[in-house]
Amino acid sequence: MDTTIISAPRVLLTVEAAARQLSIGRTRMYELLKAGEVTSVRVGRLRRIPADALADYVMRLTAEQPTAA
């Protein structure tokens, strides 16, 4: 019997986990949330960032910046 555990990617991330995904600090992540640049949701009293919101943010950054020559 195969006992391999397959973990699905997380749908919602903590602020700290989202900051790690973007390779930025926790404080900068809170700044992005406050400015509305990254979407977050409340789950009870907890603040969580949808994984898709990080992908959207990175796509916007990429689209806004000129390509390297």
Could you provide a short overview of the structure?
The chain has 69 residues and is of the alpha+beta class. It has helices at 15-22, 26-35, 51-64, and strands spanning 12-13, 41-43, 46-50.
Q: Write out the strand line-up for the largest beta sheet, numbering strands in chain order.
A: 1-3-2
Count of helical segments? 3
Between the first and last Cα atoms, what is the distance in angstroms? 54 Å
Order of helices and strands: EHHEEH
Low-confidence stretches: none
The number of domains: 1
Helix content: 40-55%
Helical/strand content category: alpha+beta
Sheet with the most strands? 3 strands, antiparallel
Radius of gyration: 15 Å
Beta-strand content estimate: 5-15%
Instruction: Kindly report the average pLDDT value.
Output: 89
Give me the oligomer status: single chain
**Annotation, overall tally of beta strands:** 3
Which geometry do the CA atoms define?
A: globular
